[in-house]
From TrEMBL:
Annotated NAD(P)-binding domain residues: 6-179
Classification via Pfam families: NAD_binding_10
The species this protein was found in: Prauserella flavalba
InterPro entries (UniProt xref): NAD(P)-bd_dom (IPR016040), NAD(P)-bd_dom_sf (IPR036291), NmrA-type_oxidoreductase (IPR052718)
Signal sequence residues: none
Domain of life from the UniProt record: Bacteria
Name of the protein in its database record: NAD(P)-dependent oxidoreductase
Taxonomic lineage of the native organism: Bacteria, Bacillati, Actinomycetota, Actinomycetes, Pseudonocardiales
Length: 280
């Protein structure tokens, strides 16, 4: 039995759908915080709250493989993930897969520390693991893409930094391939899109899709943060966005490894196609 945590989120739902292409639905369990919101997934649904370990024990009953989709609460991820790892170990799973961040063990990426700590917890547990170090999701640029389509300007502070991003569906297909396949024990996968792109490339894709003139406006980090604050973003969120653009400018998301395409047996989704879907 394969259990997918966070199965009601954007990525989790796509993993469930990808698994159903090769695994019988009665062998898949969606582990979610609010079961009533997951009734449409077409698989067994069990309650699983990272903050309530007793629910994890029940959710993992009979599990052979578990996908731990990283939590969304920055600052709380390590204890939450530790609870999942402990429950997976108690259940005796043969594989625990985890959605991590690029080069989490060594990268100065703003997102890396909690992922690095989680990876250490997983390794120390002794549970066979597969670390899925997902690069950036193209969907994370949706707000900027939509604004660019309306205003003719894509705004950021990443300079000419490149991002080897892929779509959530691509990463979901990679996770499903690992969960449904064999021979992935104790492997670390650096997963990315096939081609790294700049923010100027995003602007060009928006222009191509909409038929409008769209350019990339590269701001200083200070001006970028000011623009975000003026647009109503909270101080912490604005700071995070600017820091991530700084990481992008420094090349921390730029490596296109080809590992995701090899896992899923096809090329990853091209940027223009992804942008067209965001604007559909």
């Amino acid at each position: 039995m394969i259990v997918v945590t966070g199965a009601n989120g954007h990525l989790g739902r796509l993993v469930i759908e990808a698994l159903k292409q090769t695994v019988p639905a009665d062998r898949i369990v969606a582990a979610v915080r609010s079961p009533e919101k997951a009734a449409d997934l077409g698989v067994e649904v069990r309650e699983a709250d990272y903050d309530r370990p007793d629910t994890l024990k029940t959710a993992f009953d009979g599990a052979e493989k578990v996908l731990l989709i990283s939590g969304s609460e920055v600052g709380r991820r390590v204890p939450q993930h530790t609870a999942v790892v402990e429950a997976a170990k108690a259940a005796g799973v043969s594989l625990l897969a985890y959605t991590s961040a690029p080069k989490a063990g060594t990268s100065p990426l703003i997102l890396a520390p909690e992922h690095k700590a989680t990876e250490e917890v997983i390794r120390d547990s002794g549970v066979p693991y597969a670390i899925l170090r997902n690069n950036w999701y193209i969907e994370n640029y949706e707000q900027g893409v939509r604004q660019a389509a309306e205003t003719g300007t894509y705004v950021g502070s990443a300079g000419e930094g490149r991002v080897a991003g892929a779509t959530r569906a691509d990463y979901a297909a990679g996770a499903a391939a690992v969960l449904a396949g064999d021979g992935h024990e104790n492997k670390v996968y650096e997963l990315s899109g096939d081609t790294a792109f700049t923010y100027a490339d995003i602007a060009a894709a928006v222009a191509d899709v909409t038929g409008k003139d769209v350019t990339y406006q590269d701001l200083s980090p200070e001006d970028h943060k000011g623009a975000l604050l003026s647009a109503g973003l909270p101080e912490e969120t604005a700071g995070f966005v600017v820091a991530l653009d700084g990481n992008t400018r420094d090349g921390l998301l730029s490596e296109a490894t080809g590992e995701l395409a090899r896992l899923i047996g096809r090329p990853t989704t091209p940027l223009r196609e992804a942008v067209a879907k965001l604007l559909a």
